[in-house]
Design a protein that fits this description.
hpI Integrase, Chain A, about 375 residues, 3 domains, 3-stranded antiparallel beta sheet, DNA polymerase, domain 1, mainly alpha
Length: about 375
């Protein structure tokens, strides 16, 4: 630590002459003072403070960029983002909305569409442009939702004509299945978990179904070890709190981490500053575990651990409504996607049928032919020929 020596004169202080008699010094005496700087204090913000600060900073940054725009129609863009902020939406939502509006603005400028009134044609041209440059359907749909949210805001404030909202643009989204990790790959992953912190993070994600952002926000006081449950006070996406539970193997990994972590830290998984471990750091550590397990070619992500949890508990017979609550889904249709991955009855029926087919079991049975039904089909076919 660097030591600094400063020389101060008593008369430099207002109370100097009054203190001099007690100190047995004359006002013009010099007092050498040796100052050793204190160790900088680490300021740890609360969960609410960090969330508020992130939202405020994101809003201010995009307001500056949007306010610099000279397009008349975008004079209301900052007010639109402020409205998002007042609704309590997350920093990610504000950032996404601001980025999409700036992208739309750049497109209008590049194509000389700097006019006073926004039209449906402007929206259609922009969306076609994004599709032509290869943007994914999901990303295009996100842009459509943000733009129509902005347009609705303009309509509510009498800036544009309400007819622009008629016959909205829509894209058909693919019904992609969630991607879970194969059981044999889970075994390979477990074999390389030699770091206690990594083991605790991965097992908690795999056994609770938490989102990685929710895991990083956990404080030690949110964990109830005797009852093996965790309180998630604010859900990462829907801001809905919920309770999740962890298994015996996750508890064992958690206890091992609690035994060696710095006890004074508030967050379960913390970074150098005492704040939560960053999303990028956690993502990188978990992805590196997949790499060391020889699973890089399968492109697993940390979020696949959450998908695996849902698939496994459904396979084990847990009711869909319970899985919905544990996952924090507001819409059960989102949870229902996992049921497409895990239907033991359907799987058993398929392999039972295939087993009979492969053994030639159908050859000994008479054809099941319904002559009455066939007559009906033929009659309908006959009528349709004269239509």
């Amino acid at each position: 630590m660097v030591e600094s020596t400063f020389t101060h004169q008593i008369k430099d202080y207002p109370q100097g002459p009054n203190l001099a008699p007690f100190l047995n010094f004359q006002p013009d005496h010099f007092i050498p003072v040796k100052i050793i700087p204190d160790k900088p204090r680490e300021i740890t913000l609360s969960r609410h403070e960090r969330t508020h600060l992130a939202r405020r900073n994101t809003l201010d940054r995009f307001k500056l960029r949007l306010d610099a725009v000279n397009l008349p129609i975008f004079l209301n863009a900052s007010a639109f983002l402020e409205d998002k902020y007042r609704q309590g939406l997350s920093a990610n939502t504000i950032r996404s909305s601001g980025s999409i509006l700036l992208s739309f603005l750049s497109f209008l400028r590049a194509n000389g569409l700097q006019k006073l009134v926004l039209s449906k044609g402007d929206l259609e041209t922009y969306i076609e442009y994004e599709q032509d440059r290869g943007l994914s359907i999901v990303s295009v749909n996100t842009k459509i939702k943000v733009l129509y949210s902005f347009v609705s805001f303009l309509v509510d404030n009498d800036v544009v004509d309400p007819t622009i909202l008629k016959h909205r643009l829509r894209v058909k989204l693919p019904e992609a299945l969630p991607r879970s990790i194969a059981p044999e790959d889970i075994d390979k992953l477990f074999l390389v978990l030699d770091d206690i912190r990594d083991q605790a993070m991965i097992l908690l994600l795999l056994r609770t179904g938490m989102r990685i952002g929710e895991l990083l926000e956990l404080q030690v006081t949110d964990i109830n070890l005797p009852e093996q449950k965790i309180m998630i006070y604010i859900g990462e996406k829907n801001y809905q709190g919920r309770v999740v539970y962890f298994s015996d193997d996750a508890q064992e990994a958690l206890l091992a981490w609690l035994a060696i972590r710095k006890q004074e830290m508030r967050y379960l998984f913390y970074g150098p500053s005492g704040n939560p471990l960053s999303y990028v750091s956690a993502w990188s550590r978990i992805s590196n575990c997949f790499k060391r397990a020889g699973l890089s070619h399968k492109s697993y992500t940390p979020h696949c651990l959450r998908h695996t949890f849902a698939t496994e508990v459904l396979n084990a017979g847990m009711r869909l409504e319970v899985v919905q609550q544990l996952m924090g889904h507001l819409n059960i249709e989102i949870t229902r996607r996992y049921a497409k991955l895990s239907d033991p009855t359907r799987e058993a029926e398929y392999f039972r049928a295939m087993n009979r087919i492969e053994k030639g079991g159908l050859g000994d049975e008479p054809d099941r032919f319904n002559h009455q039904l066939q007559a009906v089909f033929e009659k309908k076919k006959l009528f349709s020929a004269h239509d």
